[in-house]
Design brief:
Elements: H1 2-41, H2 44-65, H3 69-90, H4 101-112, H5 115-137, H6 150-200, E1 208-209, H7 210-227, E2 230-239, H8 242-248, H9 250-267, E3 272-278, E4 281-289, H10 293-312, E5 315-317, E6 320-322, E7 325-333, H11 340-356, E8 362-364, H12 367-388, E9 393-401, E10 407-417, E11 423-424, H13 426-436, H14 438-459, E12 466-470, H15 481-492, E13 499-504, H16 505-508, H17 515-525, E14 528-534, H18 541-546, E15 551-554, H19 556-559, H20 569-581, E16 585-589, H21 594-603, E17 607-609, H22 619-628
Helix pairs in contact: 1-2, 1-3, 1-6, 2-3, 3-4, 3-5, 4-5, 4-6, 8-9, 9-10, 12-13, 13-14, 14-15, 15-17
Length: 636
């Protein structure tokens, strides 16, 4: 659109230049004809002067024909000035009829020439007329008043006709140019309107975009202040939109966005404005919201439920039926903020809280959520500093063979000690580290430290005691986890069979980052794989078998009730049977009592871990525990 407008403007300029050349040629020819007619009636010196003028007009026409526009204008004006001045000199002086031609020349200079030509011509006329008048006053110039004849009448008419004709065609050109410029200006304004509208709209959905939302927010806030009401900002984020793009392609994803945008637009109330914020995010602004919480709370909750219902209706894309859900965060202006960026951030924060609640939900921002956000940011900052300054420690909890009562390994557990002697619980910082990506660096440190510690205690004589570490799904995203593990094993000299990685069940169904290939690579290295917290996730037998795990760790929530008579026994027995069918060894977590231990032995569980033997302990205490356990593992 912009290039079209520019090309049109350039075309108008070029057309104007061509028109001026054409008019100059017409004036030259008309003047030549007029001078020729005048020369036919003239006599003596006047006829010679007119003959010289004819030659000048021929030169002007030739230059104009060849495209030398400015040169042609200069020759035309100079020739006519010399011609008129000569006629004035040989005839009536300042009273000569040729003086009538000077104003016409000045008009031509303004329209056809430039500032320099006009100024030069005006100065020349003034100087010549002044000189002529001074000479006349002092008697140095004698005017010859010609006899009035029909020839004079003809000459006067020639001057009027040439001047009138030239001025007429030039003024018509100016008028045509003015009309053309008005039309072009109207077209430019129309294009600007279209461009402005396009800049406000999202091209895919046709909704207003984020930039327009930001501009109009201030206007809506001013109106809200005047009327004593508030605005509600709904931040909508589609749940699981990425799998649609990944499995069906971006074209299908675009169709889904268009359909959901249409639904949202159809459900929009007159006092609401809908925007596509970006990607799979939308912004709905509701105006004229009451200030009393008991009034607006019910309104917002009801509207949020309507939005959830509108999105959840199935969408048919080709042969596929897609059921979408949305998470909605709500913030209120000016109650929470009157700044657009800040109110969007708060609504976005509430939206993420809705996702944490299980998705397909809504959440209204409040101060507690704001404090949690600040605490989260501070924890992220502290975690990063702790990683850089190596403030973390690894503690070890023994794993025991239930048949021989011998320690066969230890699970490395992360601890974050504080200056006051207390510890920050792992569930306070590990989820945040996973969300922010810090877990990659933290996990690399854990693996390196645990492998080095295991190599150290094996060098002390505990050759049959291995180590297991927990691995987050985030650590698989870069695709280099097997290479880093192999490098660390080679550096320490620890045999790969003494290292075990504990994986969550949810990781096994996520192959978006080549998880399966990385797990198979680890298995080829000889690294053991265990399914952690078995029974709490989503895995099935086909997934368990595909990834070549050797152990299942039954979550403590199933094990601890075994201390009571018959509690959970059938459920644990079923898990043991599943493991046996897959040739997996089973580790029971959360063994705290002798009764629980005896029941696990009777059920045929292979290994145990829990407070019955020991809680996790620092490295030095763990080494002492190992040394003391060589003769007796179980407590007296």
């Amino acid at each position: 659109m912009l290039f079209t407008s520019l090309a049109s403007s350039l075309g108008a300029v070029e057309e104007l230049a061509v028109g001026r050349s054409r008019r100059l040629l017409q004036i030259s020819i008309a003047t030549f004809v007029g001078l020729a007619c005048a020369a036919a009636f003239a006599k003596g010196t006047t006829q010679l002067v007119l003959a010289g003028g004819l030659l000048g007009m021929l030169l002007c026409a030739g230059l104009t024909w060849r495209g030398y526009m400015q040169a042609g204008v200069a020759v035309l004006l100079g020739n006519m000035f010399i011609l008129l001045s000569s006629l004035i000199w040989v005839s009536g002086g300042v009273r000569d009829l040729a003086m009538l031609g000077y104003p016409g020349l000045l008009v031509f200079a303004v329209i056809l020439g430039n500032t320099y030509i006009f100024a030069g011509l005006l100065l020349a006329i003034i100087l010549y007329c002044t000189l002529l008048a001074v000479l006349t006053v002092h008697g140095q110039f004698t005017m010859v008043l010609p006899e009035i004849t029909y020839a004079h009448i003809f000459f006067v008419n020639i001057i009027f006709i040439l001047t009138g004709f030239s001025v007429y065609i030039l003024v018509k050109d100016v008028q045509a140019l003015t009309v053309s410029l008005r039309k072009e200006n109207a077209r430019v304004r129309e294009r600007e309107t279209v461009i402005t509208e396009l800049a406000r709209r999202d091209q895919l959905t046709g909704l207003f975009n984020r930039r327009d939302a930001e501009k109009r927010f201030m206007l809506m806030m001013e109106e809200a202040h005047r009327e004593g009401c508030q605005l509600a900002v709904f931040f909508l984020d589609l749940d699981n939109f990425k799998p649609v793009n990944d499995s069906l392609g971006h074209a299908a994803g675009d169709q889904l966005l268009q359909e959901l945008s249409r639904r949202l637009e159809e459900s929009r109330a007159p006092r609401e404005l809908l925007y596509r914020f970006g990607g799979d995010e939308f912004l709905l602004v509701r105006t004229k919201l009451p200030r009393e919480q008991e009034q607006w709370e019910d309104i917002l909750q009801g509207r949020a439920r309507q939005l959830l219902a509108a999105i959840s209706e199935p969408v048919q894309i080709g042969q596929n039926t897609i059921v979408s859900t949305v998470s909605v965060g709500i913030a209120i202006a000016p109650l929470h903020s009157d700044n657009f960026a800040e109110i969007c951030r708060l609504a976005d924060l509430a939206m993420y809280e809705a996702k944490q609640r299980g998705r397909n939900a809504y959440c209204i921002y409040d101060e507690e959520l704001g404090r949690a956000s600040v605490d989260k940011f501070r924890m992220l900052k502290r975690t990063q500093e702790a990683i850089e300054q190596q403030e973390f420690e690894l503690w070890y909890q023994p794993k025991v063979c239930l048949q021989s009562d011998r320690i066969i390994g230890a699970e490395a557990l992360l601890r974050w000690p504080q200056l006051d002697g207390d510890f920050i619980a792992p569930d306070e910082f590990i989820p945040l580290a996973e969300e922010s990506g810090q877990i990659t660096a933290l996990g690399a440190w854990v693996a390196g430290r645990a492998i080095a510690d295991c190599a150290d205690w094996q060098a002390r004589g505990f050759e049959d005691v291995g180590v297991s570490i927990n691995v987050s799904s985030v650590q698989f995203r870069c695709g280099s986890l097997p290479d880093r593990i192999a490098e660390q094993l080679e550096t320490t000299g620890l045999p790969a069979r003494y290292l075990e990685l504990e994986l969550t069940e949810s990781l096994l169904i996520d192959d978006s980052q080549g998880v399966e290939q990385q797990l198979l690579r680890l298995a080829q290295l000889g690294v053991g794989l265990a399914i952690d917290d078995f029974g709490t996730g989503y895995s099935n037998i086909s997934y368990l078998n595909r990834f070549r795990a050797q152990r299942l760790k039954i979550d403590k929530s199933f094990i601890m009730p075994l201390a009571d008579e018959n509690a959970n026994e059938n459920l644990v027995k079923a898990m043991l049977q599943v493991a046996a069918s897959l040739n997996f060894r089973v580790v029971a977590e959360g063994v705290e009592t002798l009764a629980c231990l005896e029941r696990l032995r009777r059920l045929g569980c292979h290994e145990g871990q829990g407070y019955y033997w020991s809680p996790a302990m620092p490295l030095e205490a763990w080494l002492d525990y190992l040394a003391a356990s060589r003769t007796q593992v179980a407590p007296e």
